[in-house]
């Protein structure tokens, strides 16, 4: 029996993704590398990816090609989609060809190491994981706003020292009634481990693996792990061996994905040079601006930038740095309200991005110190993902989930933010 054309990979909020075994059935004359390595995204609503995120992350996202979906092809696709997701695709007449990030990177590159026979035990080191790195922390630059000549409105002082991720631990502890989430925050993951050049991605990944919450998941792995998990979710700690950690951290660093994602989160736009771009306005300030009677007369309260300050969540307790707010200097906004809103939404998308890392490895080869790491050049750009080789291990780092978040209002983000900082305040007081 021949391989089926479509295999179900997964469903998002708006679409389903199917692996395509032969791209020439959906694309006119696809290049050889793409033939068995692409996927089809089907949705009955138009695609709504954030344009700036796509521009900035193009090497990690790969191709997007819209193709017609005639009835016969649609029915063939639908037949492999679980019924509960049919509502996402019914009525679709077009689809988008995208890279298949769960494909084995060794096979894609026809890797020479793949030529030798690989044992079942070694294959256990082949997997794809999803990492949600969440948001970089830098001390905010615009810390207050004066609207219609009234009293200054400031951001919550927690934001002057603590990343959103650590605040969320307290929020989730309260929301889910699970105190353990807010315990040992100082030894928990902080996104800056990945984003900051002064911190180690390896330590960040170790911390994330220890307390994964839903920021680290296994997407595909050797069947033996799934059997052990008996149909449930496969715990990342089972699949990712301690010996793998360094390779994963190196692959992430060498791919340089965190530079691109961090800049999108901080600035909410794509620029060649970010040095002249003002960071995204906090919702505590953006929202009052939208409520101003005279939007032109608004003044920002600005602190000097200090990008190298470390996030305090892993080092100190919480002491509100309220006095810092008083040092902020009034200044006319250098962007319009409309631009500020656009950038805010782009940053929301960027803060929720998922990275997919697939690893093709020969686990039994000792990851000796001093093994060379290199980013593989000359990979067909449409394939998407950045390929990194470390010794005999091969990694592919990709970005997914860059849909616009404009379906939620600014009111929603304003209220949500207030709940988070309140939970943080309550949580640190209790400790
Ligand atoms: Zn932090
Ligand atoms: Zn964006």
What this model shows, in words?
The chain has 431 residues and is an alpha+beta fold. It folds into 2 domains: 6-100, no CATH class; 129-430, no CATH class. 32% of the residues lie in helices and 17% in strands. The protein has helices spanning 51-61, 71-78, 86-89, 105-108, 120-123, 164-175, 192-195, 201-210, 223-229, 236-239, 245-255, 257-267, 283-291, 322-326, 337-351, 410-430, and strands at 6-11, 16-20, 38-42, 65-68, 94-99, 127-131, 142-146, 153-154, 216-220, 299-302, 329-331, 354-360, 373-375, 386-390, 393-400. The strands form 3 sheets. Strands 9-6-12-15-14-13 form a 6-stranded antiparallel beta sheet. A 5-stranded antiparallel beta sheet has the order 1-2-3-5-4, with no helix packed on it. A 4-stranded antiparallel beta sheet has the order 8-7-10-11, with helices on one face. A hairpin with a 4-residue loop joins β1 (6-11) and β2. α1 (51-61) packs antiparallel against α12 and α12 packs antiparallel against α15 (337-351). It is globular and about 70 Å long. The mean pLDDT is 91. One zinc ion is lined by residues 137, 163, 165-166, 190, 192, 311, 313. The site of one zinc ion has 8 residues, from α6. It comes from Angomonas deanei. GO terms for molecular function: ATP binding; inositol-1,3,4,5,6-pentakisphosphate 2-kinase activity. One of its GO terms (cellular component) is nucleus. Phosphorylates Ins(1,3,4,5,6)P5 at position 2 to form Ins(1,2,3,4,5,6)P6 (InsP6 or phytate). Pfam families: Ins_P5_2-kin.
């Amino acid at each position: 029996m021949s391989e089926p054309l479509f295999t179900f990979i997964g469903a998002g909020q708006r679409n389903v993704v199917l692996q395509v075994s032969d791209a020439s059935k959906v694309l006119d004359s696809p290049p050889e590398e793409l033939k068995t390595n692409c996927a089809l995204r089907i949705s009955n609503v138009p695609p709504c990816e954030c344009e700036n995120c796509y521009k900035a992350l193009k090497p990690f996202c790969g191709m997007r090609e819209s193709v017609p979906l005639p009835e016969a092809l649609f029915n063939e696709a639908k037949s492999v989609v679980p019924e509960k997701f049919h509502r996402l695709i019914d009525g679709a007449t077009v689809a988008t060809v995208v890279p298949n990030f769960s494909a084995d990177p060794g096979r894609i590159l026809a890797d020479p190491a793949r030529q030798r026979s690989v044992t079942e035990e070694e294959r256990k080191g082949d997997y794809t994981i999803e990492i949600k790195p969440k948001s970089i922390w830098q001390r905010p630059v615009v810390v207050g706003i004066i609207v219609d000549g009234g009293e200054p409105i400031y951001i919550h002082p927690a934001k002057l020292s603590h990343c959103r991720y650590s605040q969320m631990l307290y929020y989730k502890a309260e929301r889910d009634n699970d105190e353990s989430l807010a315990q040992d925050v100082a030894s928990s993951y902080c996104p800056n481990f990945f984003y900051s050049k002064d911190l180690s991605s390896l330590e960040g990944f170790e911390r994330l693996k220890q307390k994964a919450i839903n920021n680290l998941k296994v997407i595909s792995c050797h069947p033996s792990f799934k059997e052990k998990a008996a149909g449930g979710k496969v715990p990342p700690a089972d699949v990712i061996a301690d010996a793998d950690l360094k390779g994963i951290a190196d692959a992430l660093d060498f791919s340089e994905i965190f530079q691109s994602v961090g800049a999108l989160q901080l600035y909410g736009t794509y620029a060649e040079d970010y040095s002249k771009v003002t960071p995204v306005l906090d919702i505590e300030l953006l929202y009052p601006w939208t409520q101003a009677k005279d939007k032109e007369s608004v003044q920002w309260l600005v602190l000097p930038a200090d990008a190298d300050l470390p996030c305090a969540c892993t080092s100190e307790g919480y002491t509100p740095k309220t006095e810092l707010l008083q040092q902020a200097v009034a200044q006319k906004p250098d962007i319009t309200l409309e631009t500020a809103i656009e950038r805010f939404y782009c940053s929301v998308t960027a803060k929720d991005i998922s990275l997919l890392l697939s690893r093709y490895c020969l686990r039994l080869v000792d990851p000796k110190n001093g093994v060379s790491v290199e980013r593989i050049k000359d990979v067909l750009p449409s394939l998407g993902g950045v390929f990194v080789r470390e010794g005999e291990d091969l990694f592919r780092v990709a970005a997914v989930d860059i849909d616009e978040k404009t379906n939620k209002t600014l009111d929603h983000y304003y209220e949500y933010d207030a709940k988070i900082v309140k939970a943080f305040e309550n949580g640190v007081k209790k400790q």
